Amino acid sequence: MNGLSTILIAVGLFLLSGVYAFVKQEQPKGVVVLLSIGAAMALVAGVMRLDVWS
Q: Is 26 left (phi over 0), alpha (psi -120 to 50) or beta?
């Protein structure tokens, strides 16, 4: 696991906690959807950069 994949996974988890907080605060659905898309993209990018796939 290199540094960039670790950072991407950490950012994805941070954004997921933001999604949870925004849902609890009843923020507009568009904001929650955009944040969740960003979190999913960061997590997928971090997992895809792991060296276990090759």
A: left
Cα-based distances in Å from 7 to 22, 26, 32, 48: 22, 28, 22, 13
Contact status, residue 19 vs residue 42, Cβ threshold 8 Å:
no
pTM: 0.85
Task: Return the SS3 of 49.
Answer: coil
Mean pLDDT of 30-37: 96
Comparing CA positions, the residue from 23, 52, 3, 47 lying closest to residue 15 is 23
